[in-house]
Amino acid sequence: MKPADQKIYLASKSPRRRELLRHIGIDFELLLSEKEVDESVLPGESPLDYVARVTRDKLNSAQHTMILRQLPHRPILSADTTVVIDQLILGKPADNDEAVQMITRLSGRTHQVLTSIAVGLTMGVETEVWQVTQQSDVSFAELGTETIQAYCNTLEPYDKAGAYGIQGLASMFVSNIVGSHSGIMGLPLFETAQLLQKAGVRIL
Ligand SMILES: Cc1cn([C@H]2C[C@H](O)[C@@H](COP(=O)(O)OP(=O)(O)OP(=O)(O)O)O2)c(=O)[nH]c1=O
Fold first, then answer.
1. 8 Å CB contact between 116 and 170
2. Is residue 2 part of a domain?
3. What is the full per-residue pLDDT of the chain (204 aa) written as tens digits?
């Protein structure tokens, strides 16, 4: 594989997104904004609208930082991942109790993982944005309370939407997936490559 001939900015502090982006040979630099995006759900907002809006806010915030710091203009990639079950949006658990509640809810059932990605390209005063939201269905086996507690006593749930990581110990809870493994981990690579190519980034 030839390396991409154009560097991009990755507007994400997620180590998984970094690792995944490397899989498709993208040359990138991290662009972290000083200002955290407000990830609270607005009243009446659907999960799809929520994940798309937060992704757009992350992109806007990174664009603002690029302009403010007078950095060279490059395509910027942002993403947001959320887990949805019973119409509820599960973000990152705040503590052990919340992690246990989340995994208990997921046990023995199928839930959705939504990952929205956005690529923005600023040229002069114009910014073009390409965005897509990828959905996967993930089925968990029935889990005993001891297993749930033991899992929540590890560090794995705490920086992840829905309190689990499919790339780690929780892989043994997942009986089936329909969708994108990389999407569940936080960056759907098929869709990411498509958007980056639309923004003029050469990948192969
Ligand atoms: C469901 C699931 C989520 N996750 C992670 C991916 C994301 O890092 C995290 C969801 O949180 P996000 O808010 O999407 O991302 P983040 O806060 O980690 O990073 P940033 O906002 O700076 O881009 O959950 C996994 O690693 N494995 C999984 O199986």
1. no
2. no
3. 343 458 999 999 999 999 999 999 999 999 999 888 999 999 999 999 999 999 999 999 999 999 999 999 999 999 999 999 999 999 999 999 999 999 999 999 999 999 999 999 998 889 999 999 999 999 999 999 999 999 999 999 999 999 999 999 999 999 999 999 999 999 999 999 999 999 999 998
5, 27, 38, 80: which one is catalytic? 80
Ligand 1 centroid to residue 160 C-alpha, Å: 5
Specify the residue with its C-alpha closest to ligand 1, atom 13.
80
- In CATH, what number is assigned to the domain containing residue 172? 3.90.950.10
Whole-model pTM: value is 0.96
Could you tell me how many helices (H) and strands (E) the chain has, helices first? 6, 7
Active site residue 137: no
175 within some domain: yes
Tell me the CA–centroid distance for residue 15 and ligand 1, in Å.
9
Q: Residue 57's domain spans which residues?
A: 8-198
**What is the tally of structural domains in the chain?**
1
Q: Which residues contact 76 (CB under 8 A, 6 or more apart)?
A: 8, 9, 10, 11, 31, 59, 62, 63, 66, 119, 120, 121
